[in-house]
Amino acid sequence: MTNSNTNGFNSSFGAIMAAAGSAVGLGNIWRFPYICGQYGGGAFLAVYICFVFLIGMVLMMSEFVIGRRTKMTPAKAYVALRPQRPVWRWVGILGLLTSFLILAIYLVISGWTLNYFWDSVTGALGRIGGEAGAYEEHFGCFASGAVRPVVFLLIFLGLTAAIVIAGVEKGIERISKLLMPILLVLLVLICVRSLTLDGASKGLEYLFLPDFSKLTGEGVLAALGQALFSLSVGMGVMIVYGSYLPVDDNILKSSMWITVCDTVIAILSGVAIFPAVFACGQEPTGGPGLVYQVLPVVFNSLGGFGGIISITFFLLLTLAALTSAISLLEALTAWLNERGMKRMKGVVLVSLCVAVLAALASLSFGDGILNNTHLYNILDKATGNYLPPICALLTIIFFGWFMKKDDIMDELSNHGTVKIGYFKVFYYFLARIVAPAALLIVLVAGIVGK
Ligand code: PFF
To answer: Which ligand 1 atom minimizes the distance to the CA of 98?
Structure first.
């Protein structure tokens, strides 16, 4: 098979960290709690966890297999594996389009996060006061503003582009290795504080006691969308990262490790946020501003240490967002690169296009000047609920029904050097039957049952 992809990670550890860096991001800490809050708490969590392990993890393995087998980006990889059916190229292209749209909305939220980091450094955030209501008002004014959110999203995009220009192992691998462990420790500390607030137990009940009567068809689809979004699977980004994986990396183990890590961080974010939501008398259905309205109250309650924790938290969240944004920009750049465009030129081109869309989305958020276009909401729904499951369904159908079983097993077992035993039978069954059937049912039920 031709290898048109000259990038690669230096070590297995670095590769896993970079893929984990793509998975762990705003999806876990910003998106998971607010979507979980909007769609019913514990019941949402239960369904989400099922989807993560039955569908998300299977897709991650599949994308890694496709990527490492072909060493190509999605658009070419599908055709290389099935030359008789060039129409599969369009699945790759749909994935890339989805990545582009996700990147646009991701930049908006990353810009908010960077702004909150900056406001923590200058002390402006602490000066707003300890009341939840004050932070809610502050967030609303800030996020629908015309200048500040756009400036911060552009700064963030500049950082992302610089690292992608530096290349995969120099830029992406190094930053990811450092970051993940620190983020985990800090999140645990915040959970401890949140759990010791008065009235915190209500938050835990909300998160862990499922009430399935609250779950709707749309909620189930949202849980599926969130599982895919959070693991960065479905749009082919993990095919690109798979193409960089070292030949001796154990794909089953890596996928499992990343999935568990990603899920633990999402649940910890829930434990950090929901007790504080109830303790501050806020609503769990507060929407996209939830993290930015609730956590500053927790930080304020920490007295002298609050400022430092706030700075560290928003810095780490910005960096976690950075490793995810990098993977999206990298996938788009790798595609252009494969089509003959220089890396630098590709990064600049994608960045310019996505900057325009992201700025427009930002201006349409909340009471922003373009709010009548509803662009933010349209992008949010499309990239959160609909496009990832559609791309994921097509990917898993390709994998389970159009790729040769021998190729899959050969890749999963590292050419026979790794024992995968019964797991391969189970995994293949999930990929061929369970995951496509579940994806189809949830998609149809979610759309029809709205
Ligand atoms: N998984 C990332 C997060 O949870 O923040 C977001 C993301 C990155 C989604 C890359 C999709 C993707 F291709």
So the answer is: 13
